[in-house]
Design goal:
By secondary structure, the protein is mainly alpha-helical. About 80% of the residues lie in helices and about 0% in strands. Helix 7 packs antiparallel against helix 11 and helix 15 runs antiparallel to helix 16.
Amino acid sequence: MEHKQIFSPQNVIRTQYFLHFGVMGVFLPYFNLYCFHLHFSGFQIGVLSAAKTVTMIIFPLMWGALADRFHARRSIYILCNITSTAVWVLFLCTSDFVMMLGITILYGVFYAPIISLLEAFTMDVLGEEKKSYGRVRAWGSISFILVVFSIGRLMDIYPVSIILLLILGGSALQAIGALRMPEVSVSKPFSQRSPIRLLLKPQILIFLLCGFLMLVSHGAYYGFFSIHLENLGYDKTFIGLAWALASIAEILVMIKSDTIFKRFDLEDVLIFSFGVASLRWLILFSARSWHVLLLSQLLHAVTYGSFHVASILYIDRMMPSGTKALGQAANNAMTYGMGLMAGFLLSGYLYEKAGMFTLFAVSGLIAMAAGLIFKYLNFACKEGST
């Protein structure tokens, strides 16, 4: 009985989030910094980041459609975890830009669908308790905090290349854990011949466009924030602390997500998140002192925490049964795929031409535009359908 409780579906999913975002806690703050220490240019770093994220435009949709069509979500999830881990080994063999670009693309083919499949698993396992999603997802944020702070201190002692081994180890553990993922019974596939047509509904298109813009605005943060802090003279321990503080703020929102979404409408939470993102990037436009930089990280509670939970719940609400994996894949593709790809490319270009502070100003304006579009076009769309 105790064994069954330990390996219950919710505990298995919590563990997968913990491992997935633990690996991300190494990758996001430090992989671009590793490339920077290989003397890659800002544009080359932007291209590598964009290459990984462009795979998240195509392959989550492809794998998600296959998972829904053939009821093969678990098999595909295991395959992608094991294969992406094997591909990562190749990064240990080269520091050549062209070779790393090729490996990045191959890695992304199998890595890209993992998180959207995991989100779909979570929605199915939670069932009627979907608004408590944040409590399950918070395990990923807890892991992210522990990792970024620990690794920051570790890399003040060891060379930055140690991140390659750490990512490999974490990915291997996640691949092993994926074998415990539950088989979830889902409704029959949506009867419409082409479920992808559902994504062309005006409300979904507006949401995906605004999600795209929101993640474009995050390109500067995810791609160059660590480099920006190092250029301002801060050490890797401070960089790890800054990333960890953002995740602590994010966790507080996720733990309270059921209370938040019982009190506030999903659309209102999304609009508020766009506005706070604009404020956050405009603060970084001028911030140089350590206390302002750290305080601005607290806004991650809204710009990632509430925005992410609201997005997952929103797309789950809009998509009928039998198309949930496709819906989460489309959301992931447009935001963390296409949005970050465009954000990374724009950031790489502007970093070279105009500098980091201008880059954050542009990011603030993009987030503001996303909020205005969602507020007014989504409202007009709802009015037109009544």
